Structure formats: structure tokens, C-alpha cells
Amino acid sequence: MPRSLTPGARRVLDVAARLFYERGLHAVGVDLIAAESGVTKRTLYDRFGSKNALVTAYLEERDERWRDRVRARLDELDEPARRVLAPFDVLVTWVPDNPRGCAFVNASAELPDAGHPARAVVVGEKEWLRELFRTELAAAGAPDPGPAALTLLLLHEGALAAAGAAGMDDAPGAARRAAGTVCAQAVGSPG
């Protein structure tokens, strides 16, 4: 999150993040968040302005945490074809701690209004990941990285959905193996 948070605001955001992910955006009200955070509703509104702004802050912070983990994995890898698969490497370790699947897809299902401020965060996260795949495929030598980038995004999202909705704990590993094949086909190197 770009802004610094007071200790009370930090508690509010941490509690909201847990509750929003576990129960859903609409199922969680500001009364519950305030109570579990140990702050008044007035403090919550003073710090975030609205529930919509709190939902947006939750998704922004979650997006940044995901991107940081992917970037850290990228920093560990030198071989271009392996870098393409970095989000899948992270996904294998991410899913066990996130059993409800993708928070962005979950939020999107609850926020049909394209004008909701959190929708831009959801769309931005998916666009960032697709662009990361495209950039890394190009760096690995794929002559036309766009179609493979989309395929990798779909594999990634499918693994999150299968793990979250159906408890298929093996989905991230299977998606990572399939992504290796897609990468190999796109760049002509082993996955």
C-alpha cells in the first residue's frame, strides 16, 4: 500500500483482509471489521473513507504481496525459459495458504459494477500477470509471445480456481508442468 498506516488503520486492514478473503466482500460489514479490529466505526471511516475504499486497499495490498513474491522468484532465476514459469513456482507455495482460490476472481464475482474502484485493481492484477508472461516469453526468445502468454494466464487462473473451488491441491503443480510444455513450444527450449 502506498500510504503509511496508523497502527489502528493497519489493524483494520489486516482484519478486513482476513474477513473479506474468508467470508466474502458482501458478507462482511464495517461493524464486524471495527469490532474485530478494536476500533470504532468512526476510526475506520476516518482512515479509509468508505467500505469500497477499504475493499480497494485490501486488494491493492494483496496484489502487491503477490507481485513481490513473483519478483523475488524472478530474482532467483537467470535462465529465461525458467523465468517464464516463476508465477507457477510461486503459485505452488501460495495456494496452501490461500484455500479460497483467487481473491481477485472472488472479488470480481461480487463486484459486477465496472465503475467500482476495486475493479481496476482486479483487472490490473490480471493484466500485469499476462504482460509478465508475455515479457518473459519474449526475453526467452518466443517469436510471438502473445498467444502463449494468454495460455499461461489461463493455466494459472485455472489452477487457482480448481484448488480453491474443488480443493484440488495438485492443480498448481499440474498447471506448472503444463506451463512448461507451453513455454517449450513457444520458445523451443525445455520447460
Automatic annotation (TrEMBL):
Domain of life: Bacteria
Keywords for this protein: DNA-binding
DNA-binding region (UniProt annotation): 29-48
Signal peptide per UniProt: none
HTH tetR-type domain residues: 6-66
UniProt keyword DNA-binding present: yes
Descriptive protein name: TetR/AcrR family transcriptional regulator
UniProt source species: Pseudonocardia nematodicida
